[in-house]
Amino acid sequence: MLNGNILTPDGWIRGTLHFENGRVTALEGSSVDPSTNGEPYILPGFIDLHVHGGGGADVMEAGNAIEAIVRTHARHGTTSLLATTMTAPRDELLAVVSNLGEVTRNRTPGGARVLGVHLEGPYINPGKLGAQPDAAVSAVLDEVLKYLSVAPIRVVTLAPEIAGHMEIISEMVARGVRVQLGHSLATYDDAVAAMKHGACGFTHLFNAMSPMHHRNPGLVGAALAHAEFAEIIPDLLHVHPGAIRAAMRAIPRLYVVTDSTSATGMPDGEYRLGSQHVTKCLGGVRLADGTLAGSTLTMDDALRNLVSLGLPLADVSNRMSRYAADYLGIEDRGRLARGAWADAVVFERDLTLAATYVEGEQIVEYA
After folding, report:
1. Can you give the pTM of this predicted structure?
2. Has 215 been labeled as part of a binding site?
3. CATH 3.20.20.140 is the classification of domain 45-334
């Protein structure tokens, strides 16, 4: 049972949230303007669809690494996530994906739920690797089907301009995969064609993609003109606040991701990102040449960053939970409603995270 200002799908209420056996059983209370009282904020738990690591562990390590990752992110309000891979040789990637398939079957106590896998590469443009290793390949249906057979692949990032990828997009979409465009040199027309084939998302909008120019709109222009959904990293390093605001006006259900690495929740120093070595310093993570390489962002910091830009808390909450759930077609997460999973975060009035509940379990260890 939780008491305070509760954000429901219909707006704020001041009252009580009841849950049992991991599910919300009742919501009691009346409509309220949360600015009129000193009660804590109770929001849906955060859903992060782009997580490479945390707590010193990297998704590509497989094994027990995922336990450190999900516990680290739960301590910062994330209640469910997609384990996100890096580009790697086929045999290595297949082994990692297979391991992640096992991980999705049970939740680690004290940790966020792993909803599935975000395959970020290897089907990307070698000319827009960003911090991805140089192991990009063109998609082949038999290979894609093999990955799908060993794990719940919920999202795939690819470059639509690569020969054969339009047909692969259609095949993946037909199997329930959300296809995102990213790490790409696509033209505006390439992107629009990909969306007609079923692609419906954009990976870390603005980063590692062809930029917008008024006579050559590129992938960014296609997203701003046509997308319903896209992910963005609001660490205020990857994207300028003005660009974040522009994207929010253009893309109705722009949602937050961290693109977090093993350096998340750790002191400055050297860490791993897939096969790459990265350095955490000055609040960011970079390759030796200075390229941004994922982030150290946590979802509670993302919330505070967006509120600091003047965005209403309810709008920020939707972008950190509900829209990601909607994107994946999940109706029982990302919202506090009867029958939904009891995934919730409690924030004090100063937006300090006070508690995380994952499927009704209170996470009590905080960084």
Report:
1. 0.97
2. yes
3. yes
